[in-house]
Amino acid sequence: MTDATGFHMREEFELDGVLRLDLIGELDLPAADDFLVRVRQLRQGGYPVRVDLSQVTFIDSAGLGALVGTLAGARRDGWDLTLDEEITDPVRRLIDFVGLTSYLWPAD
């Protein structure tokens, strides 16, 4: 599904059995809602998921909130959900600005 800003998601199973969920375009309020709906479906299906942000061209507080909330719920409930570390500059700037780097990608 593509919204008016061109946001869409693409899915592919990787060799390790994890479903890679590529987020493409602007991750704003309407896109965050679409993301949350799809993530709930994947979670109900029991799939381990790796979210790829390497093609996100813009992210706002709603998009960041959706990512943080989803990750927090996954950690709390033991669901295998991770964020790929390759991200675009706009995403990195926002994450750095709000100080979430170590939360999103904790050191092993």
Structure commentary:
There is one protein chain. By secondary structure, the protein is α/β, with parallel strands linked by helices. Helix content is 44%, strand content 31%. It has 4 helices and 4 strands; from the N terminus they run ββαβαβαα. It has helices at residues 29-44, 61-77, 89-98, 101-104, and strands at 8-13, 19-27, 49-59, 81-87. The longest helix is centred in the middle third of the chain and has 17 residues, at 61-77. The model has no long low-confidence stretch (mean pLDDT 92).
What would the keywords be for this entry?
108 residues; four-stranded mixed β-sheet; 4 helices
Give the topology, please:
Layout: E1 8-13, E2 19-27, H1 29-44, E3 49-59, H2 61-77, E4 81-87, H3 89-98, H4 101-104
Parallel strand pairs: 2-3, 3-4
Antiparallel strand pairs: 1-2
Strand order of the largest sheet: 1-2-3-4
Whole-angstrom Rg: 13 Å
Overall strand count: 4
The succession of helices and strands, N to C, reads EEHEHEHH
Share of residues in helices? 40-55%
How large is the count of helical segments?
4
Query: Ranges with pLDDT <50 over ≥5 residues?
Result: none
- Principal-axis shape equals globular
Short description:
With about 110 residues, the chain is an alpha/beta fold. The chain is about 45% helix and about 30% strand.
